[in-house]
Each structure stands twice: as C-alpha cells, then as structure tokens.
Amino acid sequence: MKSNSQMPKYHELMNPLLKALQELGGSGSIEEIAQKVSELSGLPEEVLNIPHNPEKSSQTEIEYRLAWARTYLKKYGLLENSDRGIWLIVPEKHNVKSVDPQVVIKTVRDEHKRQKETPEKEKVSEEEKDIEIPDEAETWRSTLHQTLINEISPDAFERLAKRILRESGFVQVEVTGRSGDGGIDGKGIMRLSGLLSFHVIFQCKKYKGAVTASDIRDFRGAMIGRADKGLFITTGTFTRDAIREATRDGAPPIDLVDGDQLADKLKELGLGIKKEMVEKISIDIEWFKSI
User: What class, spelled out in words, does domain 146-269 have in CATH?
Assistant: First the structure.
C-alpha cells in the first residue's frame, strides 16, 4: 500500500461512517457507505483510489479501513449487518450521532481479551491487535482475485463475462472484442419477463487498479447509437469520478461491476466457486449414559 498522510486511520473513520449511515437513512450497502464516506471526507481522488493490496484484493485502502471501522462499531453494539451485506445502525441506537473512537477501541479489545486468549502475532498492524479480521474480509475473495488477475488470459476473462451474462438471463451474447472498437468486448440482449428487452454492450477490464472517468467516457463514445445500455466489468475498482460519469444526467447509462460485485455474482451463480457445508459432529454423552 502506498502511504499518504491524508489517509485517515480506521478509528478516524468511525464517526464519518456513522454520519454516512444516518444520511443514507440508517442503513446501506458496503458500496453505498464507501461512496457516502468518500463524499463526506472531502479527500482528493488520488487518495481515495490508493489500493490496499492490488495483488490480493480489489479493495482500496479506505475501503479496507472502513471494514475495520465497521467491525469495531459492530462489536461495540452500534452496528449490525445482514447476510446480504447491508449494514445498519441498530434500532435502539439510531439516535447516537458520534462516538469516542478510543472508547470504542478499548471497550472492544477488553471484551475480546475476556472472551478468549489470542496467540501472539508477528508484525500485526495496530488495528489488528487483539481483534478478529473484519467480517467481510473472506479469504475466498482474495484467492478469486488472484486467480482472475494471474491465472486467466484477457480472452478467457471475456469468455467468463459472456458466461455470466448468459447465466444471468441475457440472450444472443457475443464476444466481439477487437482493436480499434473503443474497448467494446461484446454485446447481448437482456430480456425482462419475456416482454421487454434491452440491447447491452459490455467491456471487460482485467485490472488491478481503478477504472477512471476517462475510461467510462471512451466506452460511452463507442456505444452511442449501438445499444440501450452499457455494462463495464472489472476485477478492480471504479474511481468516484468514474461512478459519477457512468450515471451522468443526459448521457447513456452505464452499469458498473467491480471486483467485489463480480465475486458475489460468481458465487451466486456457482461459476468456479463451490460452497461446501461442513459437517459438525458432537457426542451426546448423556445418551450413552442412559443406555
């Protein structure tokens, strides 16, 4: 990770995180929260786009630190999250406007120490001392990211995108990627309820960094007059300006799928990802005693 003096520490993001949730109506997805915190922070684009570890994840550094802030506030009893990744302020605490980050840290770490002994760790960062990793930092995402970046070719990534679209309800999906075509990699038709259909052009970017607003403008220029919507899929992330450009008023809309959303879709569709149920066996001692 690149260092930057403007990058807030994870505990400095606790109150902006709370404010973001309040402005979102008390709940929000991880993506919505990150966007709102970015807006509230006033940080420059180059700071917001600093990657955490591009070799292992599509997360930006600020997203990584927000994950720690969420984890601490959850263990402090202020936040909770659903299985679908929606975070919210617990109902009985919705009037809490701010916290003392140091009180949160001390309370959570003291409780953690009371609950169990943790083995000594080597070279851990300050936020990782005496606390588990953030809830959403699953190792499977890291493995998938490395696989998509290092183990498959750009052509294979385009074929993967084609398979995802077909599994998601698209028809007449074609990979058309060729040089000089403005970055367009394919096209398809999305059918809704068998009544409505939308012609969609897509671009796939196997990328470690962040897609910029310029990339979105180039893609839009290539799709104008050729489709109803655009779809931009990347293994990386999108800058805040890129997100704004994709939804700019008066311009053809472009939907964005970043690395985390791509991982969720692959998991949902069961493409290259297997979910296994772990068998848990316990011994009923009382049953044996009753024989």
Answer: alpha beta
